[in-house]
């Protein structure tokens, strides 16, 4: 919930660079071939940390990939159904804190989905692990419809109490699909 802190003490070490989450299809392909995969060329085989998750959830997962996770000032839908993202950004610059930006949007584009699953998006301040935004819903893709889904979320009255790096994470079916960094800076800070 908003205002709570995430605890990652029980999470296993990730086999990839910090803040880089694999796509579901990457892990799906690896785990479908078996829970063992080679980390680097010439490295010994290691067990994928997501293997236990996939062993339990693979059949229930939607499969697919996230092709976009973006923040924008405005999102419009044209007459032909295409989305137009206006003012795509990767951070905020405020003169004082706490600060509340004008309304903005989060866009997630998901492709090659099937079935149904719950999704969630969390925006977390990296230093304090405080959850600033937590939302979710359900995705359903029927066999006779296009398997691409666009999720548009309006964000209003979100308070940024302090500057810092924030991570926006999209989870589908309890599995991380994508993440992005949102930098919030102090306009009065002296450059170093």
Explain what this protein looks like in three dimensions.
The chain is mainly β. It has two helices and eleven strands, in the order H-E-E-H-E-E-E-E-E-E-E-E-E. The strands form three sheets. The chain has a five-stranded mixed beta sheet with strand order 5-11-10-7-8, with no helix packed on it. A four-stranded antiparallel beta sheet has the order 4-3-6-9, with no helix packed on it. A two-stranded antiparallel sheet has the order 1-2. Strand 3 and strand 4 (83-89) form a beta hairpin. The longest helix is centred in the first third of the chain and has 9 residues, at 24-32. The protein is globular. Mean pLDDT is 76; it is low at 1-47.
Secondary structure blueprint with pairings:
Elements: H1 24-32, E1 36-38, E2 45-47, H2 51-57, E3 65-77, E4 83-89, E5 91-94, E6 104-111, E7 115-125, E8 131-141, E9 149-155, E10 164-172, E11 175-186
Parallel strand pairs: 5-11
Antiparallel strand pairs: 1-2, 3-4, 3-6, 6-9, 7-8, 7-10, 10-11
Q: Identify the overall geometry.
A: globular
Structural class: mainly beta
Report the major sheet. Answer: 5 strands, mixed
Q: Flag low-confidence runs.
A: 1-47
| Strand proportion | over 45%
Average of the residue pLDDT scores: 76
Number of helices: 2
Strand line-up of the largest beta sheet: 5-11-10-7-8
End-to-end Cα distance: 35 Å
Q: How much helix is in the residues?
A: under 10%
């Amino acid at each position: 919930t908003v205002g709570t802190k995430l605890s990652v003490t029980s999470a296993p070490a990730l086999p990839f660079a910090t803040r880089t989450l694999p796509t579901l299809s990457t892990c799906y392909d690896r785990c479908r071939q078996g829970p063992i995969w080679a980390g680097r060329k010439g490295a010994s085989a290691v067990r994928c940390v997501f293997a236990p998750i996939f062993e339990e959830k693979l059949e229930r997962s939607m499969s697919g990939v996230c092709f976009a996770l973006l923040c924008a000032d405005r999102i419009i839908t044209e007459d032909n159904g295409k989305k137009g993202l206006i003012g795509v950004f990767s951070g905020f610059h405020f003169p004082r804190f706490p600060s509340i930006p004008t309304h903005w949007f989060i866009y997630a584009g998901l492709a090659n989905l099937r079935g149904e699953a719950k999704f969630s998006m969390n925006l977390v301040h990296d230093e304090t692990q405080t959850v600033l935004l937590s939302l979710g819903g359900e995705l359903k893709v029927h066999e006779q419809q296009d398997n691409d889904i666009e999720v548009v979320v309006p964000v209003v009255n979100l308070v940024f109490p302090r500057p810092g790096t924030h991570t926006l994470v999209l989870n589908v079916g309890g599995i991380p699909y994508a993440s992005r960094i949102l930098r919030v800076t102090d306009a009065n800070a002296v450059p170093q």
